[in-house]
Amino acid sequence: MNKERIFEIIRAPHVTEKTAATEKQLVFKVDPTATKAEIKAAVKTLFEVDVLSVRVVNRKGKQKSFRGRAGKRVNIKLAYIGLSEAIDYEQIMAD
């Protein structure tokens, strides 16, 4: 996998109270076309951690209306990364 593809796969961290409370798991918004193997390789090379598992969730955008006009939120693909050892979440995100 080339270096440009690695930086395209992981788009942003998905930080909520629930995801920040876990020490052996990271959650990222990823490219919708990325596979589990690509996500695992990208996390290993970017953050230099041992990845045990990758779980992927395709979250559909909600239908909403704003001032009588119909609209739709963006679809998001989330990757839950299981790590072999506990890490400091803020330390990983600061690097």
UniProtKB/TrEMBL annotation:
Name the Gene Ontology molecular function terms of this record. rRNA binding; structural constituent of ribosome
Q: Recite the UniProt keywords alphabetically.
A: Ribonucleoprotein, Ribosomal protein, RNA-binding, rRNA-binding
Role noted for this protein:
One of the early assembly proteins it binds 23S rRNA. One of the proteins that surrounds the polypeptide exit tunnel on the outside of the ribosome. Forms the main docking site for trigger factor binding to the ribosome.
Gene behind this protein:
rplW
For this protein, the parts annotated as crossing the membrane are none
One Gene Ontology cellular component annotation?
ribonucleoprotein complex
Keyword Cytoplasm among UniProt keywords: no
Pfam families noted in UniProt: Ribosomal_L23 (PF00276)
**What top-level branch of life does the organism fall under?**
Bacteria
User: Subunit details for this protein?
Assistant: Part of the 50S ribosomal subunit. Contacts protein L29, and trigger factor when it is bound to the ribosome.
Concerning its family, UniProt says: Belongs to the universal ribosomal protein uL23 family.
Instruction: Output the HAMAP family linked to this UniProt entry.
Output: Ribosomal_uL23_B (MF_01369_B)
* Gene3D superfamilies named in the record: 3.30.70.330
Species of the source = Ostreibacterium oceani
GO terms in the biological process aspect are: translation
Q: What is this protein called?
A: Large ribosomal subunit protein uL23
